[in-house]
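Supplementary Text 2. Reproducibility record for the structural model of the 416-residue chain.

All settings were left at their defaults, and a single model was retained for analysis rather than an ensemble. We include the record here because the model underlies the residue-level annotations in Supplementary Table 4.
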Amino acid sequence: MHIPKITRRSLLAGAGASLAGASMAALGGPAEKAGAGASPTATAGWSPALLDRAREGNYFIVDGVVHWANMLPNNRRLKRDWEHATDWGYSYHAQTCPEPYRLTRKQYVRNWKVDESMDICLLETPTDILVYHSTPLYYAFWDGLMSNEKGANMKGEHPDRTIWYAAIDMFDPLPAIKAKIDEVTAQGAEGLKFYPTRVNPETNASEAWFMDDPKKAMPVFEYARAAGCRHIAIHKLLEYTGPETPALGIADMYKVAAAFPDVTWDLVHAGWALLEPTLELMRKHDNVTAVFEGPMFWLIYDMPRFHRMMDGFMTKADVDRLIFSSAAVRTHPYWQVAGMMNYQAPEGAKWKMTDAAKRKIMGENAARIYGIDIAQRRRAIADDRWSRELRANGLREPYAAQRAEVDREAEVLERG
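Retained model, structure tokens:
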């Protein structure tokens, strides 16, 4: 396997990215533009009326990437380095959640449980379906950070509310990879999630792989397709800094998109970097989707950058392949949901952000891609516990349960 050069700093930024949904260390982020304690000026308000607006506007909201991380100290393999990664992640939380609802660092650094995390998304926003991405960050966290166990639990207990991408570690031997694919597909995973880089825990050296590698990657994708998997997500772009980080670029996606035309290839963090190459890739291959995990933060702290990104996608790509993502729950999804519902094209733009386009980006596109009949799914979830509580009480305030009680598990472990 060819090992391109990639810095340890960039990989640490990737862990911070996974904790927040965007990378601050490699490319600059809100903590560099404002103090870590500054409230996001674009999102100072919260209103329970967002639920009624979503229902009146006929939104069916699918959050395209959510993560329930285990950030507790006993889950970290690289103790001091990953404390810094947690700091980066918390900085994004602080920048995207206004002061009245912001968690303390102690409340934030926790093992985010399935039920509490689903409650945040389904009781505190008008979201209908959650796409949970497990992550294979086993070099840094014992359970990969966002574990397969949580995804399997969601899919088993709440199938009508869940789409699950299971984590596959491409650095494992091929027989182990095949066995893991068999295991997670048997547990109900609709898709697979891959990361192209890691720090080798034994040698401390950085390593990477390419999606079009005929010996390393292609056999895995062939096996996954034969096992029935039609959705593959790849972490890209966040820590991309140029020729020194080629595995985080997208040049290796052309061959796999062409080789597997019946597989949807989700480019996660689309728009963060390499915008024009991304648009070219999507023009050439209609089975590549743009998943906006990370760039959705720009609605909160960098609207000019969000405008530039959307100008590209709305004029040079296909609106039917754009996927909303809030990166919940370490950043609260309310402000990304509200921001996208409120979003309008900038003055002078040659395109319009219509209500129909918003509905596509925020859920209808994902529903089509995953084969979800929206009317049927609405009926299926109409009387579950989240729908009943919303009807009875309306939207709950952001992080209501977490702000009320510090996670005692994290408190005990931090003292110890």
